[in-house]
Batch of 4 targets.
Target 1
Amino acid sequence: MLGSLRVAVAGVTGGLGHAIVSALLDTPEVEVVLLTRSSSSTTDFSHFTSRGAILKSVDYSSIPNLTSALEAVDTVICTIFASQPTINLIRASQAAGVRRFAPSDFSFSATASARIDAHEPKRKVWAELKSDCKLEYTSFRNGIFMDYFVCGAPKPRHEGPFRMFPFVVDVAAGKAVIPGTGEEKVTFTRVRDVGRFVAAAVKFEGRWPEELGMEGETMSYNEVVRDVEDVIGRKIEVVYLGKEEIGKALEEAREARDEIGVLVNQTFELLADGVGSVEPVLNRLAPQVNVSSVKDLLAEYWST
């Protein structure tokens, strides 16, 4: 590859964008452009700019402004969830001559995500990409962020500004509420490893496929519980939710217009149906990326 590959990242203040930028800055022959909203210009990005990142303040409502910011950019990685700013970024990328674009998916497979109402903005973005778009594009998919198991850990501090909350297994409380039988397979990937896989993918010479899945580990929640108990040295309380119980909770959440409740219970439904795993294409294409297992992460944060 001649010269540096310029990669722009949209959405760099959150934990996922932070991990992707960190990994890109560790990648030889990659120049990183940070796209940040004008309103967030007071955020301190010196930990990135001191390593060579270029900071560009943009207006996501202005396609000409975005087009100018994307000059000489080869690849755009987006971690912004909102659909219209992302669609504007897609249109600006085409106008600027960008080659590759990755929207903010970073979740389950397309089939599983289609069952989640809250992912409608993602579906609008995909409709834009598929409608006479000249960009090469892919969807990075990683299952569930493994880092949720860190929530409440006494040590050490998590490596990035990732928003954590206990999901299914609450290690700090010593409890797990598991959808289904607990034997269904689920893919977990550490946020740091997601960044490393994305950094590896931007260096691929061939055309991106429409989906690039990755995994830290694919396992059942019963196996997760066993790993937790091995690391903390005690049993935790486990409750299983059947499909009928989940369906009733989902109906109640809809009636109450509880968007978070709908999201959680729709996710519980697909996990209980056994569609929470991701095909680890990137693990095969980028074997040099060393990933954390669930037990690795638990031992790092919870071992005494």
Target 2
Amino acid sequence: MIETDIIIIGAGPTGLFAVFEAGLLKLRCHIIDALPQPGGQLAELYPKKPIFDIPGFPSIGAGELIDNLMEQIKQFEPGFTLNEIATTVEKQEDETFIVTTNRGTKVHGKAVAIAGGLGSFEPRKPLIDNIADYEEKGVEYFVRQPEMFRDKKIVIAGGGDSALDWTIFLSDIAEEVTLVHRRNEFRGALDSVDKVIELKKLGKVNLITPAEITAIQGDGKVEKLEIEKEGEKFYIETDYFIPLFGLSPKLGPIANWGLEIEKNAIKVNNALDYQTNIEGIYAIGDINTYPGKLKLILCGFHEATLMCQSVYNRLNPGKKFILKYTTVAGVDGFDGTRKEAEKAVVKAIE
């Protein structure tokens, strides 16, 4: 039996940052994740994808962000159970929890934080009859290694952030990048839309809207795509077709834990601490839902911070928590007690 304070389910950016916030409060963490390495979707699906909304970083690669988070939490020595799925959670008489994985690993903790992102996931595929015949033969649902597209002709389909971001990124790598979207309006960030339009004006990106890709042709690999635009059909040659229509999320075993679910997400109390309907079980990051929810990494960081403070107060009833800034107390001296806070302030003044 592995013993810890907080059992974190999900090793994505929100789960990893929760380890840091818990460490500041002297709370130990153990992370369970179904993937063989930390990082969640960022490491598995988008390691080279640029991220533009992390405070202090105008742009940072998804993989680099995970590396930085791992370096940040190393000092707190979290435990990891990787390549295993959390299948059951049992609340004990003393209000603690035991989480068991599909391989029989048991983790005993005083609180559970579900940070599973979108849960288990698979790409949403376009309705093209023979698309399965070309998967990994020119049809790619994820961009894991951008260098494979160097000096190639690329067609991207989609209208969200991923489609826009990869169009921008690959315009400096590929010989030719074409973005196809079924509407004239895009769902992604306005800044990204502006960048794509500017790249079109510069001749670095082909933009075809409103249009849809309706067929794939090629002898053993993708060679041509049929595009339908305003009732007319035409073909363009390409080496790769990258449909980016998002992911279809599934909660997996978590859906059977007695948690309140709404539209495949876990309902939480966002007015306080992101706790679920089961006291002691929290949900943070993309896996939760509440009025006004935004699925952004920085929002997950905020939720992780409040969750950790709630766990601290739950485990230390009557012990007054004093918020301190790490610039004053440092990392080692941060434990939330008034006495240590006063010492830190005096030391800073001296």
Target 3
Amino acid sequence: MGLTRRSAVLGVLAAVTLAACSDNQDQKGTQSGLIEAAKRKKAPAVTGDLLEGGSFDLSAYQGKVVVVNFWASWCAPCRAEATDLEEVWQSSKASGVQFVGINIRDEKDKAIAFHSGRATYPSIFDPAGKIALGFSDVPPSAIPSTLVIDQQGRIASITRRDIRAADLREVVEAVVAEKDSPNG
């Protein structure tokens, strides 16, 4: 890894460390947690090895709404939101919504122990936080952070704190409904 790339990785990790488990504000300029369709940025490639084996590739879900949650086993707000995330996953997967967790800055055995019994959706193991670097236009600069990707592969919402089921469900349902909208 070159010095510039290493510096960038260290910079992002430092920012995430400083913001970890924080109560940062959501994306500015949104209504009901949604970014206006015309202002949405394309989501980067998201690929990686899953905690329980196998791999994940966001591009396989083009045309679907995808919820991406950045988490760590040591993060108290991550523990607080885990039940809410699972609840929305269970209630929305029949609509074609996909969830994926991205575990960062963690040890694999601790991540697996946290994830088992809390989440039935897959989670990528990304201890170096490299996936977060791809989200430079709308960075998940706190742990936890939850992004909702629309059917066109754009970031429709970002929450840089723990999220409750009612709030996430409202955003997910709004983004799912966009497929029938000319502005979606």
Target 4
Amino acid sequence: MNEAHSVRQIWRSLGLPGIVDVHTHFMPKQVMDKVWRYFDDAGPLVGRQWPIAYRSDEEHRLETLRAFGVRAFTSLVYPHKPQMATWLNQWAMAFAEMTPDCLHTATLYPEPGVEVYVRQAVDAGARLFKAHIQVGCYDPADPLLDTAWGVIEDAAVPVVIHCGSGPVPGKHPGPEPVTALLKRHPRLCLVVAHMGMPEYTDFLDLADRYDGVRLDTTMAFTPFVEETMPFPKSEYRRLRDHADHILFGSDFPNIPYGFIDAMRVLTRLPGIDDVWLRKVFYDNAARLFGLPGS
């Protein structure tokens, strides 16, 4: 049985039309090549051997997701230095125009003029932003970003934000900078990547306090992560409590295991039922992005 068939068996058994994956990466080729080299070298923000499971050309990667039944996905791009975000946003806009099942994604960086290109991205129809605090090495509450966050907040565009201190802490790790950001912009819709690993409890607490905070399942609960940053057993009940605010994410193609593994671990979580799985694999994201309902 091939992987695509196994993936489809899961969502079909739940009566879903497919999957929405809010955490996938498509980038300009030269950027993706550099990202893969960084993983190959187990760079400082990776910290361990990390084979890329779906290393192939862009068209084959698109075919793979579609074969899995992924109905909508993202092109999470992120800058690591100034004067990079505008170019990435232009690329991501063009990619979304050519790829109707990709949610138009944009990014930002603390630099003069950030509010201008963020406004341009919103006006051009961006449906999602990506903020990578680790790689960008910036404080999300940096005053340079304040107006830009206000634009995103007013437009109600979700932001997938890598802000937990896993897999290796960066310069501004953990929930404190994000808490400061939400105090300034409490209506922001933040999708905390990787369930906020390893500060799972702190980010669940933020989801309790702010209606706009959500979490994506990217890499969480898999053996690869559990061996170093396990999800606390005491918090499993809170997964049920937050059934409407958890979204499926895979980190495709940059994962060191199969896509099917990212799905199976969710189906095996203690106390989880089909209603929860339907919400996480499709319904919550469909509601957030205005996709056809299940």
